[in-house]
Amino acid sequence: MTKLNTYRRVIGGGLVTSIWALLYAYTLLSLEAGSTSLVWFDSVLSACLLAALCLFVAVGVRYVRFDSQKRYIPFVLLLLVLLLVWLAVVNLSLQVVFQSGTYFTRTLPLRLFVALPTSLLFFGWLMSQKETDCREEELPEPVMPIVAQPEEQLERITVKRGNAIEVLTLDEILYFQADGDYVTIQSTKGRFLKEQTMKYFESHLDNTLFVRCHRSYLVYVKAIERIELIEKQQQWLFLTNGERLRTSPMGYKLLKQRLGL
Asked: Which one has a higher pLDDT value, 232 or 155?
């Protein structure tokens, strides 16, 4: 996820939350459902909690992938469960702060009528942004031919674990993952964050052992246990530690070139 897309979602989520709170408060005030302070407290609290729950589910969808075309169904069900949690938290807050009595019960139909479609639409918008990210990640990448190795190749990589310094050998590394201006190194010793670029590692590692299978991943060939076709022109790399990585179309061609397939 780029910083621009992150800002766009934060701004979009803020706008949806603000509009929801204003419309909800206006409706309750028109119906004279409660005092002005109670209505505004209810509106702001309900809107912020609802937005937070939608973002929570959207983050889960971003980091957990499913092979099936119905991969979002578990998260929609989770969203419905979280809506019940949302109702319980709002009700408890209103009772504690305002001793609101039957106010929550009287406004429950309106609350559900507004919240359910709003949360689903907001969630759907976040998912469409995720799909945009995925399409951007799959933009064609040039297939780089096998070139002569640089004079100085890395044989080991130093990383920090708290105040200690660990030394990783190449056969302990499973893959590198781009993380903004940093690189996350997944190894048999754990995950480490390195202040370095993917381009640096790609140019300083043995390119017969490490392959850029995706814009975000540089994988150790010997860590690949199997390759499976999931969808048309989309493959998963299953690693020896049980993890799986996506390949881009160009990355898969490069991987086949390096593996001699």
From this structure: 155
